[in-house]
Amino acid sequence: MRRNSALDSRTAVAAIGEEQVFLDQATVRRDKLADHLQAELSVEALDALERARLRMLRQQYEELLRATEGLVFGRIDGVDGTVRHIGRVGLRDDEDDEPLLVDWRAPAARPFYTATAVDPQGLARRRHIRTTGSAVVGVDDEPLDGTITTDLVGEGALLAALDERRTGRMSTAISTLQREQDDIIRAEATGPLIVQGGPGTGKTVVALHRVSYLLFAHQTMADQAVLVLGPSPRFLEYIGQVLPALGETAVVAATCDTLLPGISVAQRATAGRTRLRHRSLGAPRHARRARRRRRRSCTAAARTVVRRHGRRHHPGRPYRRIAGRTG
Q: What is the DSSP letter of 156?
């Protein structure tokens, strides 16, 4: 038992070290690209086309600046030996221009969320990488097709996520999204999409990540911006860090009563409206009372008829009409 424990510990240390090397490489590439974009943004725009280009570059620059926590959070190993790392943004190698880090919203990253042991989609392993700042602190592996039986570490990303400290604000879930959630996030933007579920089932998380995906996949939406409506300022404060952490800034958040500037929502009820409202709210209660009164009156009338004709009524039996005596 001790030997197995020591072996698992060495395997975990090796895996963490391997991913730390890649994270350092991705961080250097991100910083280099951010410096290049900052130099490009220092040039003054002379026409509308240049202003549009600089606006796009600024968006990329701000997205890179926000991609500090969780820059790399996943890895998928194909049965053919290919390895892809999944992250908050997409990066290319500066030497051969090959993809270094795949954006979580890109089609190439989808198997990270949808592959299962029943449908591995050509993957041998899925790895979740947990980081704190620029340090890799944990690795969790999931074998998918059974070809990898050794060098697996961790107990699962979902269990690790449940153990994380709560901050009182909603955080991103791009490293732990489930297949059904990913299907909703990447659904076609052909019309209204309604997500229904009970409390705590992740409706808000899925909706916010869908906004991020749509802004990534449809540039016209990013140009026009997206409006997020919430029920209260408290709710907007709770979810306020999710989209910026995903690199999306083309979003306006508001409550329904703040949609029109300078107009406040107030309720003024006249005496007539108040009576009408109370009447409508009390209608079911009044109806029940009326039914009870009718039942009592019918029961009393039937008992009178029974006593008059000397007939005895047995509870539970329907009353029968009794004809009057003659003579």
A: -
